[in-house]
Specification:
Order of helices and strands of chain A: EEEEEEEEEEE
Radius of gyration of chain A: 13 Å
Shape of chain A: globular
Largest sheet of chain A: 7 strands, mixed
Strand content of chain A: over 45%
Helix content of chain B: under 10%
Number of helices of chain A: 0
Distance between the termini of chain A: 31 Å
Number of strands of chain B: 11
Shape of chain B: globular
Largest sheet of chain B: 6 strands, mixed
Oligomer: heterodimer
Structural class of chain A: mainly beta
Largest interface: A-B, 25 and 21 residues
Number of strands of chain A: 11
Strand content of chain B: over 45%
Radius of gyration of chain B: 13 Å
Structural class of chain B: mainly beta
Helix content of chain A: under 10%
Order of helices and strands of chain B: EEEEEEEEEEE
């Protein structure tokens, strides 16, 4: 158990809908990272937050957004969902040693 | 990720050593990682090595880095059935975002 929690574990929704994925980092970790794992694209970095501020952006679609709250939990919002958004979404966190990213169990999103 | 490549499959006999190889292209990579993913689970950080190191050993795991050839390997000694998983190589630089390879599925046979 990495100490990073993600909810929900599974999510099934229809095309065009909007969902919110939630992540709680390890206690004391200030950085949160979001990654997408899909069969065709593999594991891709989406976005990073540090202590509430966006720090780095990767291959994140404009339909996707994220934020980190004062209590350091983070949410990833996915809107106008398409079939191709079906994937595993991982959250990771890091603390004083930013080189060590610890991953949560992931949220499996299925868009039908 | 397109910048990190690794072979897709490895089959090894229980008790033997496993060697998983990875190549990367980004010469500015500062840290190289190995993560393990078991079925239905998240990614477990196994080990990482800084680019100024050649080798790192941690119990049954040995990481070798050839920076000139941009080649990273993970050796698992005395491979056990519990080592069956997908192993991901990843590289990171000072912006801390990681680029992952496609993963190597390791199957341990009795």
């Amino acid at each position: 158990d990495s100490g990073v929690t993600q909810t929900p574990k599974h999510l099934i929704t229809a095309t065009g809908q909007r969902v919110t994925l939630r992540c709680s980092p390890r206690s004391g970790d200030l950085s949160v990272y979001w990654y997408q794992q899909s069969l065709d694209q593999g594991l891709q970095f989406l976005i990073q937050y540090y202590n509430g501020e966006e720090r780095a952006k990767g291959n994140i679609l404009e339909r996707f957004s994220a934020q980190q709250f004062p209590d350091l939990h983070s949410e990833l919002n996915l809107s106008s969902l398409e079939l191709g958004d079906s994937a595993l979404y991982f959250c990771a966190s890091s603390g004083e040693d930013p080189y060590e990213q610890y991953f949560g169990p992931g949220t499996r999103l299925t868009v039908t | 990720g397109e910048d990190v490549e690794q072979s897709l499959f490895l089959s090894v006999r229980e008790g033997d050593s496993s060697v998983i190889n990875c190549t990367y292209t980004d010469s500015s990579s500062t840290y190289l990682y190995w993560y393990k993913q078991e079925p239905g689970a998240g990614l477990q950080l196994l080990t990482y090595i800084f680019s100024n190191m050649d080798m790192k050993q941690d119990q049954r795991l040995t990481v070798l880095l050839n920076k000139k050839d941009k080649h990273l390997s993970l050796r698992i000694a005395d491979t056990q059935t519990g080592d069956s998983a997908i192993y991901f190589c990843a590289e990171g630089s000072n912006d801390y975002k990681l680029s992952f390879g496609a993963g190597t599925t390791v199957t341990v046979r009795a």
